[in-house]
Amino acid sequence: MKKNKYKIRSIPKVVFFREGTKMRYNGGYDAPGMTGWIANNAKAGSTKITKGMEEFRESVKDLEIFAIFFGRARSKAYETWVKVSREVEKEFRLHFFHSFDEDFAKELDQSRPSIKVFKKYDDLDQQYKGSLKNLEKIVKFLRLNYARAVKEYYKQTE
After folding, report:
1. CATH code for the domain in which residue 92 is found
2. Domain-embedded: residue 1
3. Residues 124 and 108 grouped into a single domain
4. What is the pLDDT of residue 7?
5. Nearest CA to 114 among 50, 75, 69, 80?
6. Helix (H, G, I), strand (E, B) or coil at 16
7. Distance separating alpha carbons of residues 109 and 47, to the nearest angstrom
8. What is the tens place of the pLDDT at every residue in 103-119?
9. What distance in Å separates the CA atoms of residue 145 and residue 88, rounded to the nearest whole number?
């Protein structure tokens, strides 16, 4: 490592990388300022399912809608998924998960790589069929599939 590669001129200094990209630090230099900034910027956007079906069921038991990426960790498709999860989570309340476990994907009848939206309020889980490297198309798919497929109908009475 080069001496002073990160231009450290004073202490404390925060050098933070997310997905290999150096982030500009603009938080405070006291303990609460630093830990708060790191907590807000370290968020993955997508939660990794590591222990299979039991962990998955526990993670989603109270969720009405969620999306899962099934694929490989070091892939362009996964990089896109992480970017999508960060972009869309700001817009509406959709929970994102990912799994690199081929057996887990098979348990849910999924090939790898793939993206699927699960809805507890509809029987219409949606499989994404486009390019897994196209951020705009994935975001559009999620926006379209976020809403309920069936709306409740109330008949007015006199």
Report:
1. 3.40.30.10
2. no
3. yes
4. 75
5. 69
6. strand
7. 20
8. 999 998 898 899 999 88
9. 12
